[in-house]
Design goal:
InterPro entries: ACT-like_dom_sf (IPR045865), D-iso_2-hydroxyacid_DH_PdxB (IPR050418), D-isomer_2_OHA_DH_cat_dom (IPR006139), D-isomer_DH_CS (IPR029753), D-isomer_DH_CS1 (IPR029752), D-isomer_DH_NAD-bd (IPR006140), NAD(P)-bd_dom_sf (IPR036291). The protein is of the alpha/beta class. It folds into 3 domains: about 130 residues, 3-Layer(aba) Sandwich (Rossmann fold), CATH 3.40.50; about 180 residues, 3-Layer(aba) Sandwich (Rossmann fold); about 80 residues, ACT domain (Alpha-Beta Plaits, 2-Layer Sandwich), CATH 3.30.70.260. The chain contains 14 helices and 17 strands.
Length: about 450
């Protein structure tokens, strides 16, 4: 018998190289440039941190810096042709100053507050204002902890005495802060961080805020300011300057505080009435105070602080020259945050986090999108404007469009395709009846 044998020949498997692929291809955003705008000029005052200067120079902007605040004719001369100005708390940008700045696009407040700027005057001229509301929160909170300990141990007075050659070792009216009650007025980013640090030091924390805010840790809210003042050994203020907070701590409020308690103000100078503070420090009702902000402050460093001579003579009072956020870490973060906001507004029109302005944004124009331009149109918030704009856009394809308003100011961003006559489009837009400021990026 012949048996058939099946011979199976092994065929070698050919190796194939596998490559990683994406389900979509991400195109780079297009770098936009302005039409009908000279090279961007930036003026930075009051020793703005180097991180901001480097960020602006990296964009190719012209940057001029000053270590001091400017005022009067000097400020008017310098601001006249700049596109962006960066300030801290000393430079005052009033309506009169802003109206002289014909090329101004944006103001950067490299600090928390914006009360040094006439926000409405800026908005009326189409100038967006940006600040850094959170970057120095930790620095201020840490300063308050240092002040609480310094006041409780009378370290300021002992230090002054030692510098005069006086040895005054004592323990009377000097305390640990463990077990003491801290009352926080304003439980925002600084107040809540302070709350955490104070609890870690063994303090009991209560707070009062006009908003319903979730407490952190064991902190407890109270219903009224008077209630908070009455139970606190230390009262620390962390509120913005508004019509409601001006002069909010005066004779009546300090009288509600415990005898032998301490008042700390790192908020705004107008929050505390200085004559009332002096009165209750001199009488001994308050055991001490820490003041970092004042109703009136010098515009520059030097021997200029002579506004409150009686306060200078009060015992156990820490006075500092508005340095709550003056740390290297805070100034670096502020420099990064504000410069990024100003750059995005200048380069892309993004107004997110502007304090006086409609906040809008659009996704980026892609690098491979041809003949698409971005229109940025700031106008008075009156009926019929969008109709006028869309009639101008009608000859083109509107890729995307977003508009919003804030008060009497409205802002439209629109990406328009197939634009070949930039000047014609620009001239038509600035001729609209409600136009305040128009830019085209392409």
């Amino acid at each position: 018998m012949v048996t058939a044998t099946t011979i199976v020949k092994e065929i070698p498997v050919q190796e194939t190289k596998r490559t990683r692929s994406s389900s979509f291809t991400q195109t780079k955003p297009k770098v936009l440039r302005p039409f009908n705008t000279n090279e961007v000029k930036i003026l930075l005052l009051e020793n703005i941190n180097e991180t901001a200067i480097k960020a602006f120079k990296k964009q190719g902007y012209q940057v001029e810096t000053y270590s001091k605040a400017l005022a009067g004719e000097e400020l008017l001369e310098k601001i006249r042709d700049v596109h962006i100005i960066g300030i801290r708390s000393k430079t005052k940008l009033t309506k009169q100053v802003i109206e002289q700045a014909k090329n101004l696009l944006a103001i950067g407040c490299f600090c928390i507050g914006t009360n040094q700027v006439d926000l409405q005057a800026a908005a009326n001229q189409g100038v967006a204002v940006f600040n850094s509301p959170f970057s120095n929160s930790r620095s201020v909170a840490e300063l308050v902890i240092g002040e609480i300990i310094t006041l409780a141990r009378q370290l300021g007075d002992r230090n002054n005495e030692m510098h005069q050659g006086i040895w005054n070792k004592l323990s009377k009216n000097c305390f640990e802060i463990r077990g003491k009650v801290l009352g926080i007025v304003g439980y925002g980013h600084i107040g809540s961080q302070l709350s955490v640090l104070a609890e870690a030091m063994g303090m009991t924390v209560y707070f009062h805020d006009i908003l319903q805010i979730m407490p952190i840790g064991q902190a407890k809210p109270v219903d009224s300011l008077d209630e908070l003042l009455a139970i606190s050994d230390f009262v620390s203020l962390h509120v913005p300057e508004t019509e409601e907070t001006k002069n909010m701590i005066g004779d009546h409020e300090i009288k509600q505080m415990k005898k032998g308690s301490y008042l700390i103000n790192n908020a705004r100078g107008t929050v505390v009435q200085i004559p009332a503070l002096i009165k209750y420090l001199q009488s001994g009702h308050l055991a001490g105070a820490a003041v970092d902000v004042f109703p009136q402050e010098p515009a520059s460093n030097g021997p200029h602080f002579d506004y409150y001579p009686e306060l200078l003579q009060c015992p156990n009072v820490i006075m500092t020259p508005h340095i709550g956020g003056s740390t290297e870490e805070a100034q670096r973060m502020i420099g990064i945050e504000v410069s990024q906001a100003l750059t995005k507004y200048t380069n892309d029109g993004t107004s997110l986090n502007a304090v006086n302005f409609p906040e809008i944004d659009l996704r980026a124009i892609r690098e491979d999108d041809k003949n698409i331009v971005r229109v940025l149109h700031i106008h008075q918030n009156i009926p019929g404007v969008l109709k006028e704009l869309n009639e101008i856009f009608a000859d083109h394809n509107v890729e995307k469009q977003y508009s919003d308003s804030k008060g009497n100011i409205a802002y439209v961003m629109a990406d328009i395709a197939n634009v070949t006559d930039l000047k014609g489009l620009y001239d038509a837009l600035i001729a609209t009846r409600a136009n305040i400021q128009t830019r085209i990026l392409y």
